[in-house]
Design brief:
Blueprint lengths: L1 H9 L13 H44 L6
């Protein structure tokens, strides 16, 4: 335990910084930007999901045909 205490005492001290004080308008502006960003992420994710499902369907179709070879008699 003493070793852990010694290791903690060696830890660097982080400089204390005050957080900036934001006005309500700045908070609203930041939240609006964040909302817009999240909307774009959501739309992009939805498109990726559609693409993924389409590729899975194509892959399934390919697997189905490859397991049922056509017999040439």
């Amino acid at each position: 335990m003493e070793q852990n205490d010694q290791e903690r005492s060696k830890a660097p001290e982080w400089p204390q910084q005050e957080l900036p004080v934001l006005t309500p308008e700045q908070v609203i502006e930041w939240l609006d930007g964040f909302r817009q960003f999240m909307w774009e992420v959501w739309q992009h994710n939805a498109q990726l999901r559609k693409d993924w499902e389409r590729l899975n369907q194509q892959t399934s179709a390919i697997k189905d045909t490859s397991h049922n070879p056509v017999r040439h008699e």
